[in-house]
Amino acid sequence: MTEYNVLLCCGAGMSSGFLAQRAQKAADEKYPGMKVSAKSQSVVEDIIEDYDILLLGPHYESHLDEFEEMAEPYDIPVAVIPQNIYGALDGEGLVDFAMEKLNE
């Protein structure tokens, strides 16, 4: 079983926190080795090396280049969570999206 640590990033971490909880429930069923965490963007730089992928809230799309630059030394992919997944707090959709990006 492959283990993946997924980091969700948003401003204060509230909506991404709810999404991470739902995603963890879905991951426990579909991808038991996946751990999903949500953190504020202010701490991402300090913890990014502990994760396999960084997923950004849609409102951070304009900062994608900055996060990619931060993740590059660790060879960690960065992607923007689609609005339909983020807005619906679709945990299953999020874990499927994360796996899709990890397998690219």
Question: What's the arrangement of secondary structure elements?
Answer:
Elements: E1 4-10, H1 14-30, E2 34-40, H2 44-47, E3 53-56, H3 64-71, E4 78-80, H4 83-87, H5 91-102
Helix pairs in contact: 1-5
Could you please describe the fold and organization of this structure?
By secondary structure, this protein is α/β, with parallel strands linked by helices. It has five helices and four strands; from the N terminus they run E-H-E-H-E-H-E-H-H. The chain has one domain: Response regulator (Rossmann fold, 3-Layer(aba) Sandwich). Helices cover 44% and strands 20% of the residues. Strands 2-1-3-4 form a four-stranded parallel β-sheet, sandwiched between helices. The protein starts with a strand and ends with a helix.
The parts where pLDDT drops under 50 for at least 5 residues are none
Q: How many strands, what sense, and barrel or not for the largest sheet?
A: 4 strands, parallel
Write down the overall mean pLDDT.
Answer: 93
CATH architecture: 3-Layer(aba) Sandwich
- Total count of helical runs of at least 4 residues: 5
As for the number of domains, it is: 1
Which term fits the overall shape?
globular
Number of strands: 4
Tags for this entry?
Rossmann fold, four-stranded parallel beta sheet, globular, 104 residues, 44% helix
Compact overview of the structure:
By secondary structure, the protein is α/β, with parallel strands linked by helices. Helices cover 44% and strands 20% of the residues. It has helices spanning 14-30, 44-47, 64-71, 83-87, 91-102; strands spanning 4-10, 34-40, 53-56, 78-80.
